[in-house]
Amino acid sequence: MGTLVQLRAQGPDRDAVERAVETALAAVERVDRLMSFHAGDSELTRLNREASSRPLAVHPWTYAVLRRALRVAAASDGLFDITVAPALVEAGLLPRPDGSLPACGDWHDVVLLPEGRVFFRRPMLIDLGGIAKGFAVDQAVHALRGGGCTDAVVNAGGDLRRFGAERQLVHLRRRAGLVPIAELRCGAVASSSPHAVYPERLAQPLGCIIDPRHHRPWSGSGSVTVAARSCVIADALTKVAALAGPPCQPLLARFGAQAYWDTEL
User: Fold this and answer.
1) How far apart are CA 50 and CA 229, in angstroms?
2) First-to-last CA distance in the chain?
3) This prediction's pTM
4) What is the pLDDT of residues 108-156, one digit of tens each?
5) How remote is the C-alpha of 100 from its chain's centroid?
6) What pLDDT sits at residue 171?
7) Using CA atoms, how far apart are residues 9 and 125, in angstroms rounded to an integer?
8) Residue 53 contacts by C-beta under 8 Å, 6 or more apart in sequence?
9) Domain range list for the chain
10) How far apart are CA 224 and CA 245, in angstroms?
11) CATH topology of domain 150-262
């Protein structure tokens, strides 16, 4: 998913914690294998190639992510839309697939059918990069909880979820350094910012928010951080909060989420 994943866990049984960490990392790898736009043999690539011709059965995790993506799309009137992949390809942020590039579709064109099947009403490309990373974090957390860990944190490039008795400071990265904005004990946070190049940094951000209303990169300033119970919802809602701004707070509240808009870089 184009990022590093960091896990930290503890519990009364060291061997059990180590096994839980291995299971959690395997879950993250599985999400990547299923939902990678870059991999030619991923389930997502197969959907993009064949789902407009016939319904395809997919893994329950892929189906769950698609269901959540469509739920956020419907609630936000399409501000979150997984069908903007062609715009990301044109921007050079996703690899160009073989053949001609279809136009951007619309989330209404993704149809979830019974028995875990998916159908596209028209040829199009979807990208789950704006939600799958949060889902991977959630699956890792479930593995750590189920494996006997009593305190843990999973961080995938800023999409973070933790549980346990300890509290963790949540920071914003600005040019002047890290600025603490909140404490997190149990729950998730995710952040998004406009695509930009920072000459003073060795590591450059790869993400980009495409505005589905005109299929161009979001050109806002600053960043937005969303806190929610699950990381998959926090991840998706950062895009909505970035594009809609503070007026979307009632929508966020429907998902049990809150946002912090930072106008400083």
Assistant:
1) 34
2) 25
3) 0.90
4) 999 999 999 999 999 999 999 999 999 999 999 999 999 999 999 999 9
5) 27
6) 67
7) 37
8) none
9) 150-262
10) 9
11) T-fold (3.10.520)
